[in-house]
Amino acid sequence: MLVGAMVGIASSLLGTFLVLRGNSMLSDAISHSIVLGIVVVWMLTHHQSGPVQLVGAALTGLLTVFLTELLASSRRMKQDAAIGLVFPALFSIGVLLLNVYAHDVHIDTHTVLLGEIGFVWLDTVSVLGYHVPQALVSMSIMLTLNLLFIALFFKELKLSTFDPALAKALGFAPGVMFYALLMLTSSTAVAAFDAVGAVLFIAFAIVPPAAAYLLTDRLWLMLVLGAVISVAASISGYFIAVHWDVSIGGTMAMMTGAFLLLAFIAGPRYGVVSQRLRRQRARGLADVSESALY
């Protein structure tokens, strides 16, 4: 539950800005294309984990975004089509290299995509004399980095997200902020894939921020609500998975969708119920005003 919650918080913090920018599917593209970075780094260094893998995956994520922006800037295709062209190509190259050159190495595409959060306690490291899951250590580092990045550059991120032209005029370098955000997204995806897989990372990066977007118009509150929804999905998903004897990661992802559905139906401002009540109230006031005229 703790690993899932930390992955959820770290992912939703960055995903909030991707959702607001309309670039949420870049998290999907990055989480798949990092397979190429992982394999290439292994071919060059024979390291399956560690800082060098984070750097390689982050660079592959940036390559994904660069190629996507390059194709979209040609104006011959829209950005969603460019994403759909670039990340399957990079992912397939990574899978081919994996099968040709690293078929006897413990790097599995199924693990990268789906992970198995129920086994995180088997891979531990010693911290101050205690055996701690390695996933917990790596996600603690990424969560700290993401929090520091957002805290230090909150004003720049906010302005470059809502008004890139003004941010550029004020010298805030929105392009640099965007690529720094995506580099952290790539690093978070790599830190998370060994424990929870790319699919759960995508769910946490997109769904909790989308649900929070239905609940508030304030950016700081959206960040907080996204984190709270991620923690709630991790805890409830774990207990439901244990009760039903099903995939823990899959149930956590399902619960993010359940919270999104709840926000869509019962949100205080943008929920279906509240909007219908406001329309009925407005219609009633209009009827009263019309009868008063007569």
Automatic annotation (TrEMBL):
Key words, A-Z: Cell membrane, Membrane, Transmembrane, Transmembrane helix, Transport
TM helices/strands, residue ranges: 6-22, 29-45, 51-71, 83-102, 135-154, 166-184, 190-207, 219-240, 252-273
Top-level division of the source organism's lineage: Bacteria
Chief subcellular location: membrane
Classification via InterPro entries: ABC_BtuC-like, ABC_TroCD
Gene3D superfamilies noted in UniProt: ABC transporter involved in vitamin B12 uptake, BtuC
Subcellular location field: Cell membrane
Topology in membrane: Multi-pass membrane protein
Signal peptide residue numbers: none
Family to which this protein belongs: Belongs to the ABC-3 integral membrane protein family.
Name used for this protein in its record: Metal ABC transporter permease
Annotated source species: Halomonas piscis
